[in-house]
């Protein structure tokens, strides 16, 4: 690579080998290579190489084991970015659907490659893989990061804002580097025999145990938070149900009172009608009596 120092080129070569390894072998192999390089300028940078996340490792695996599929995504992403500027809304929506179909299909292929390597990829991890492939299609620098085969973290991009890749790739010089394709099967890392292999294995196992402990703690924290929210909602639901029951009771009382008032109103209207009729009769009788009195008075 032009513009890269000899030390940087040496680090990239070693990183290219390390990030091609099965995920579980990375830490021990990295530490063994750093020990082999003890006393050189490369020892510390090699030791500092970060173990990739599972999603990043799956993308690295895809780039190395199925370069044709990976290149199809990256090359098509370049073409689509160039074409998108001149497209209308409907064309852009169609383009987005096609991009999603492609990334979904390639993600399925990446999961199959991981399964062949003995690694189960959950849907959550697959979503991160697909998001990384989408970022590579939307953003040219993300595409460089994917092409390097040295991702240490999954990527995400809207295609608008610049993505910070400083913590997403093994080294800054990874951008612009193309991963070395490998044939299916365990990749080989040529290192000198390590007399401390048992200690390294123990350290790797301890690291994996620490990772699973951390994951368990995070899962427990999420569970506790969800359980607390459920309890609060259940209590709120019981409170609201009690209020509903009280309102229904009051509504029943009001309906009964309303029915009673309607009955009393009907009785009162009957009494009023009878009183009106009696008054009319009395008025007629008065009129008759008054007329008779007037006649007798003449």
Task: Give the secondary structure arrangement, pairings included.
Layout: H1 6-18, H2 26-36, H3 43-47, H4 54-65, H5 67-84, H6 89-116, H7 123-138, H8 140-148, H9 197-296
Would you give an account of this structure?
It is a single chain. This protein folds into 2 domains: 6-193, no CATH class; 195-298. It is built from 9 helices and no strands. Helix 4 crosses helix 6, helix 5 packs antiparallel against helix 6 (89-116) and helix 5 (67-84) crosses helix 7 (123-138). The chain has helices spanning 6-18, 26-36, 43-47, 54-65, 67-84, 89-116, 123-138, 140-148, 197-296. The longest helix has 100 residues, at 197-296. It is 71% helix and 0% strand. The chain is mainly alpha-helical.
Order of helices and strands: HHHHHHHHH
Q: Count of helices?
A: 9
- The proportion of residues forming helix, as a percent range, comes to over 70%
Which regions have little confidence, pLDDT < 50, spanning 5+ residues?
187-192
How many beta-strand runs?
0
Mean pLDDT: 84
Approximately how much beta-strand content do the residues carry? under 5%
* Domain count: 2
Shape category? elongated
- Class by alpha and beta content: mainly alpha
Describe the biggest sheet?
A: none
> How far apart, in Å, are the first and last alpha carbons?
144 Å
C-alpha Rg, in Å? 41 Å
């Amino acid at each position: 690579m032009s513009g890269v120092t000899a030390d940087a080129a040496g680090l990239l070569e070693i990183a290219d080998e390390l990030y091609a390894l099965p995920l579980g072998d990375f830490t021990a192999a990295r530490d063994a290579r750093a020990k082999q390089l003890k006393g050189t300028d490369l020892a510390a940078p090699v030791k500092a190489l970060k173990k990739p996340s599972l999603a990043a490792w799956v993308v690295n695996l895809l780039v190395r084991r199925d370069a044709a599929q990976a290149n199809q995504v990256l090359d098509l992403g370049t073409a689509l970015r160039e074409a998108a500027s001149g497209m209308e809304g409907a064309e852009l929506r169609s383009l987005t659907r096609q991009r999603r179909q492609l990334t979904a299909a390639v993600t399925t292929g990446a999961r199959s490659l991981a399964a062949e390597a003995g690694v189960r990829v959950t849907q959550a991890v697959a979503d991160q893989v697909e998001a990384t492939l989408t970022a590579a299609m939307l953003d040219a620098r993300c595409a460089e990061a994917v092409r390097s085969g040295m991702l240490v973290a999954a990527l995400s991009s809207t295609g608008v804002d610049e993505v910070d890749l400083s913590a997403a790739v093994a080294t800054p010089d990874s951008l612009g580097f193309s991963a070395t394709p490998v044939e299916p099967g365990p990749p080989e890392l040529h290192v000198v025999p390590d007399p401390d292999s048992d200690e390294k294995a123990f350290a790797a196992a301890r690291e994996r145990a620490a990772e699973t402990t951390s994951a368990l703690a995070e899962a427990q924290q999420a569970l506790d938070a969800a359980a607390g929210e459920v309890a609060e909602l259940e209590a709120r639901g019981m409170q609201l149900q009690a209020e509903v029951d009280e309102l229904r009771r009051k509504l029943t009382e009001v309906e009964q009172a309303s029915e009673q008032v309607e009955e009393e109103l009907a009785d009162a209207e009957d009494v009023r009608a009878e009183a009106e009729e009696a008054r009319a009769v009395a008025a007629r009788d008065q009129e008759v009596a008054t007329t008779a009195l007037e006649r007798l008075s003449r």
